């Protein structure tokens, strides 16, 4: 089965094989044009149109500005080349570099000097010219060094190509002899075998076809076949895979086979199948490489219906897929190895995606040829315009390939750190955020302890619980950082975040917004703070896997564990952090010198609070179970004695409970927490043990030794779009405030995300009891302090038992529903009995029911709407603390009742 659809003619110079040039792809042409049977003494390759009519049997070499097919023997040794001849290949700049040296140097020494020149242009020329000659080991080593160490990327690439060219040049030894079938005549040993060897590993571009005549040009190979005799046994057909095997070595089929060589690769060709009883052998039909319409005119008459006789002995080839009925134009054009006549190739200039801003990258390389096109700014390369859905890029649709705008917070934008503003690695990130909170609530509100009341004749201790509260935060964060936007930690960063807050409170009792009843029942306040300001720098790389050690100094956010049980704040501090073992482990060492908080906005001031916090934690991913992360931590809180009235005129330090004397609290927390999943079950667990001293606890009225515990666990299971949750929390309580041991658990500055979080009534609201809070805002612990932002931790408290059941519903990708039911109990009541002068208080707090929705209309964090509702169904213990009697009489004191308390809120987050 012949695999070359060629016309073969025996001439005085050998066997001439011609192919139509128009359909000859250069990769295939490289295989066939360097054809060498390895058995003929004279082999030549010519273009058919390059042979004059008078010398049709003679072969003429290729013409090429780059290289020519050289006779066997390879490159000319550079040691034999005179210096002047060698320098003619260089431009004036390179020649001047050599002429400045000693005139007696050889061409080899000149090449070494040029390869080491300080000008990248000269080094690039030297690499290109070196490919024409056979080099010594010193020059080869120098080129090999350029591939690794040269500071110019283009020179590096040229050096790599040169090394590849040297490695691909075939040896000058004879190719592997052809395998012969039994009975075939062997070639005469007296005839030497030759192979074609290109002087350079590029292939010349054949002349273009003449479109006017539409006559296909042909490429011919002349092969001396005096030794060849056809075999009597049929040669097996070569499968298409072998005919396409352009990089296979050796011979691939049995029978009378010659060898075609290109570079270091050889391709077996069944020359027996090219035999014909006449002088002309026509291309066989259906060949996928050389279709019939491109065969010479006299050959088309021999085309059959898919089966063709090859040599008159009945040997046929099987049918193959015919060409398409409607052939399309070629999509892939022929690769060009020559520089275009009109100039260098230029990269298309298209608009980049997103809003890129101006580029600050100056070009460092200039274009030398069309093989390498320098792009100075790799971030702002363009993309062709594309309207995927044909709608004209409507602004409300999620559309790919969109050009951005400066005000676009969703698509790529230089203002949010997607493109560098200085060089290639320095980015600017602007983040604007508005947090708008509106809240209606009912909390137990005492009537004023003074004589004045809102309504004359009020006798109840607790008055109207209805309140309206709104607080709104507007922040602008400016961050300049250097590094990579992904995959590796940043090298350094600077961030400044000013925040403005506006808040308003409307209540129905006097003495709530201010101790001065003349201030009425409403309060309006605003505050401007610089909440974040820090410098961050990477100190060291700890491993090749981007493990690092970095430091951050200034006011910064930090949450010490997964759920925020102990510390979650933004404050002044120094933090060392990093990763180990390819980011499998993370660690933090943090010191905070706490600043005083503004009363109504809870933002930082520049006043010192006399409190120091030390935190160290270590995370380990895939701890025991894949997907489960464990954390061990140590917290140390030193809260010094101080005296402080808040902005509204209330005493916040020391707590206005019992012996209100300044005191020092020093506590150390040892903790183990975990977050992740164990198989199908999601697990979150926490355990803390706190020890320390309180120099003079207000409720106990004496020094206390702190020894308290916290245990919490949440298990959840995902089934389709619903998550089922069950949670439990135990914060130990103090069973005897007079024994000198403080056993009630309290955090430092907690903000838990547990059992409903911000949707929960018990956690969201601050429930006042006299001049302190039974619970603080955004806290679970009943710690009896003024507030968690300005008060001190109190370990003489009743503690808490919480049982939770909840379900989360992913209704749509945009809408999420969160539901929770919490049963609450005090762990101990002796502290409350001492504080309220009541006996035998019940432990039951009640049931906290909550539901909330979270809506993300754009599937991201640019717009988040949260709406929640919760109610607290009071238990007996809560009623005994906050209930009222009707009628008010001593005989009816035991018949207390407390109404259900409600809250509803809406919270909108807008982020740019």
List keywords for this structure.
mainly beta, disordered N terminus, 912 residues, single chain, 10% helix
In brief:
The chain has 11 helices and 34 strands. It has an 18-stranded antiparallel barrel. Strands 1-2-8-3 form a 4-stranded antiparallel beta sheet, with no helix packed on it. It has a two-stranded antiparallel ribbon with strand order 4-7.
> What spatial form do the alpha-carbon principal axes imply?
elongated
Q: Quick one: CATH class of the largest domain?
A: Mainly Beta
Reported by name, the CATH topology of the largest domain is: Porin
Largest sheet: 18 strands, antiparallel, barrel
Radius of gyration: 43 Å
The assigned CATH architecture of the largest domain is Beta Barrel
**Approximately what portion of the residues adopt beta-strand conformation?**
25-35%
What is the number of domains? Answer: 4
Poorly predicted regions are 1-73, 168-316
Number of strands: 34
Number of helices: 11
What is the terminal-to-terminal distance? 70 Å
């Amino acid at each position: 089965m012949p695999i070359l659809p060629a016309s073969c003619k025996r001439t005085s110079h050998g066997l001439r094989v011609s192919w139509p040039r128009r359909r000859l792809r250069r990769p295939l042409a490289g295989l066939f044009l360097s054809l060498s049977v390895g058995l003929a003494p004279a082999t030549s390759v010519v273009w058919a149109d390059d042979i004059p009519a008078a010398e049709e049997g003679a072969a003429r070499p290729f013409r090429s500005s780059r290289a020519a097919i050289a006779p066997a023997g390879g490159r000319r040794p550079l040691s034999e080349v005179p210096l002047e001849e060698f320098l003619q290949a260089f431009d004036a700049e390179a020649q001047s570099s050599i002429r400045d040296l000693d005139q007696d140097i050889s061409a080899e020494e000149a090449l070494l000097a040029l390869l080491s020149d300080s000008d990248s242009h000269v080094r690039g020329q030297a690499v290109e010219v070196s490919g024409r000659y056979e080099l010594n080991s010193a020059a080869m080593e120098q080129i090999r060094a350029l591939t690794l160490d040269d500071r110019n990327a283009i020179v590096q690439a040229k050096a790599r190509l040169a090394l590849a060219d040297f490695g691909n040049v075939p040896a000058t030894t004879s190719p592997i002899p052809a395998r012969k079938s039994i009975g075939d005549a062997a070639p005469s040993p007296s005839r030497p075998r030759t192979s074609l060897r290109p002087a350079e590993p590029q292939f010349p571009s054949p002349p273009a076809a003449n479109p006017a005549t539409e006559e296909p040009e042909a490429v011919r190979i002349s092969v001396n076949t005096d030794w060849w005799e056809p075999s009597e046994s049929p040669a097996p057909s070569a499968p298409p895979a072998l005919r396409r095997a352009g990089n296979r070595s050796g011979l691939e089929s049995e029978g009378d086979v010659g060898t075609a060589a290109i570079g270091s690769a050889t391709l077996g060709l069944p020359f027996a199948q090219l035999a014909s009883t006449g002088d002309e052998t026509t291309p066989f039909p259906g060949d996928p490489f050389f279709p019939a319409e491109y065969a010479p005119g006299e050959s088309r008459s021999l085309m059959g219906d898919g089966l063709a006789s090859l040599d008159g002995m009945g040997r046929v080839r099987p049918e193959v897929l015919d060409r398409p009925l409607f052939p399309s134009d070629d999509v892939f054009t022929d690769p060009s190895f020559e520089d275009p006549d009109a100039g260098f190739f230029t990269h298309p200039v298209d608009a980049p995606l997103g809003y890129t801003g101006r580029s600050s990258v100056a070009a460092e390389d200039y274009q030398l040829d069309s093989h390498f096109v320098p792009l100075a700014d790799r971030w702002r390369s363009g993309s062709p315009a594309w309207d995927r859905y044909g709608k004209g890029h409507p602004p409300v649709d999620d559309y790919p390939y969109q050009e951005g705008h400066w005000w676009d917070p969703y698509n790529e934008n230089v203002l949010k750190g997607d493109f560098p503003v200085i060089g290639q690695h320095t980015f600017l990130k602007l983040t604007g955020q508005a947090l708008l909170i509106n809240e209606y609530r009912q909390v137990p509100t005492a009537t004023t302890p003074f004589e004045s009341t809102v309504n004359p004749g009020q006798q109840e201790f607790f008055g109207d619980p209805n309140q309206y509260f709104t607080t709104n935060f507007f922040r602008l964060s400016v961050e300049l950082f250097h590094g990579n936007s992904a995959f590796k930690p940043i090298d350094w960063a600077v961030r400044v975040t000013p925040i403005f807050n506006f808040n308003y409170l409307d209540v129905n009792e006097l003495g709530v917004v201010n101790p001065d009843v003349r201030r009425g029942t409403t309060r309006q306040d605003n505050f401007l703070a610089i909440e974040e300001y820090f410098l961050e720098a990477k100190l060291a790389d700890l491993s090749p896997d981007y493990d690092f050690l970095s430091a951050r100094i200034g006011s910064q956010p930090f949450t010490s564990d997964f759920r925020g049980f102990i510390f979650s704040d933004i404050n002044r501090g120094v933090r060392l952090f990093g990763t180990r073992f390819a980011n499998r482990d993370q660690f933090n060492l943090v010191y905070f010198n706490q600043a005083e908080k503004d009363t109504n906005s809870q933002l930082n001031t520049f006043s010192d609070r006399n409190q120091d916090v030390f935190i160290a934690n270590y995370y380990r991913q895939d701890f025991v179970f894949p997907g489960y992360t464990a954390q061990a931590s140590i917290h140390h809180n030193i809260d010094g004695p101080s005296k402080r009235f808040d902005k509204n005129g209330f005493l916040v330090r020391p707590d206005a409970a019992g012996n209100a004397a300044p005191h020092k609290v020093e506590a150390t927390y040892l903790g183990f927490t975990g977050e992740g999943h164990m198989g199908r079950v999601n697990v979150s667990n926490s355990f803390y043990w706190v020890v320390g001293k309180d120099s003079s606890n207000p409720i106990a009225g004496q020094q206390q030794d702190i020894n308290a515990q916290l245990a919490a666990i949440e298990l959840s299971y995902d089934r389709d779009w619903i998550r089922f949750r069950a949670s439990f929390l135990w914060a130990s309580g103090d069973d005897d405030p007079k024994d000198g041991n403080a056993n009630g658990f309290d955090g430092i500055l907690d903000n838990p995300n547990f059992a409903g979080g911000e949707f929960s009534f018990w956690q969201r609201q601050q429930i006042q009891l006299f001049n302190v809070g039974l619970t603080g805002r955004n806290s679970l612990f009943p710690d009896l302090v003024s507030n968690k932002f300005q008060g001190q931790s109190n370990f003489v408290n009743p503690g808490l038992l919480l049982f939770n059941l909840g379900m989360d519903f992913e209704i749509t990708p945009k809408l999420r529903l969160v539901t929770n039911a919490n049963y609450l109990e005090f762990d101990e009541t002796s502290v409350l009995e001492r504080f309220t002068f009541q006996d035998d208080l019940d432990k039951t707090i009640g049931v906290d029911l909550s539901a909330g929705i979270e809506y993300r209309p754009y599937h991201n964090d640019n717009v988040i709407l949260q709406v929640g509702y919760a109610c607290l169904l009071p238990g007996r213990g809560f009623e005994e603390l906050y209930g009222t009697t009707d009628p008010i009489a001593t005989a009816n004191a035991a018949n207390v009742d407390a109404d259900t308390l409600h809250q509803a809120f809406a919270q909108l987050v807008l982020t740019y």
